[in-house]
Amino acid sequence: MSFWDAASSLPPVSLAFLAVALVIAFGFEFINGFHDTANAVTAVIYTRSLRPTSAVLLSGVLNFVGVLAGGTAVAFSIVHLLPVELLVEEAGGQALVTVLSLLLAGVIWNLGTWYLGLPVSSSHTLIGAILGVGLANGLLAGKGEAGLNWAAVGKVLTALIVSPAVGFGLAFALLWLMKRVIRDPRLYEPPAHPWAGDDPAADPADRPPGWIRWALVGTCGGVSFAHGSNDGQKGMGLILLVLIGFLPFHYATDVAHPEKAAATYAAAVAAREVLAADPARTPEMDYDLDIVVRELDGKASFAEVPPEWRWAVRQAIYRFGEATDESVRLSADTRRRLAPYRRTMQDAIEFVPLWVVAGVAVALGVGTTVGYKRIVVTVAEKIGKTRLTYGQGAAAGAVTAVTVLGAGVLRLPVSTTHILSSGVAGTMAANGAGVQKGMVKKIALAWLLTLPASMALSALLLVVGRQFVG
User: Taking Cα atoms as reference points, which of 104, 84, 87, 85 lies closest to residue 96?
Assistant: First the structure.
């Protein structure tokens, strides 16, 4: 059954709200594109290494490619923040309010901070909105803190807090090293004619020397690709929450690839044999494997499993993966032997439809081509006491690209905005320029407020919305 077949089975009102939710979700990625574009194009535009139109088109294309090439690991770090079974347990109207509340909170905060010209993280905004509805859901249902997956929350928040410090430190170190290895003074002097938002046709001919210019273009491309690979996956995770909220049984397991059912069954049988030899296994591990084996025995596709049992299979696979991932109870040899079977089973529940990947890539890529002007001047002129130099732009960009790509390998969602802003501050310190305390305080305040503000906003929207659905 395709998405269109599953969606057409919804009541007309639910189908209409699903369409609205998807439009808002893809809209969030579009906003993310123009909200965060300046992180990639600031140095290359400000130093006149590329004209603004060329820079944003390059960034848009590489954001698009980054989404397609980035995988899905970060997407499921987002999905797992919210115990998705809560969306299934809730009545249809309440699940709808949950999804719309987190979407609207993210859009409202992103647009507001962009309008003020503040380089605020879309990642913080999205994660805060998810945490807000999760906490509110748990409290309203009388389940307290059970509205969130706190193990996943801890990993994500740690990454969001630590990564700006990493960006500052690495950018400081890189520029310090560059000044000792590359003696060209042009790298460390502010450009004589920086871009100031004027007509690009009026650009003077004295652009950066060729090798410096191409270094800046390269770091622009690297940050754009990294941003697409990490932030694009956050958009995928957001849309998966929408799909699970409206069509939970269709997206419980991968019904679009029938061969995965037999592969998952074989993996569960093999995993059960491996576990049988380890006395440290728990009854819960055996129980979850039994569900998978029983429900998939003789099935040629997940579509043959009754819908309610598809969800049970999904949850059993997820619990088994969590229990055996880094369990100190099981021996190292058991965990090693289980690893390939766990990956096979996880592949049946951690999947992103191709149309979602393509849609996010288009939304993020197109969004990247607009809206950059408000942030460029803030990052280039208002963080440091002097204007951004060629060397600072290259160092901050290179560090941002490497840090964001590394976070993707570790399955961690991080903020491109905060890493690059911190990297610029680090290069200002390394260059002896110092920072503008007033603007840094504003950026830091926005950084500190984004998470609680988006949490509060999504929770408020959820509480108000529930008054209308009962």
Answer: 87
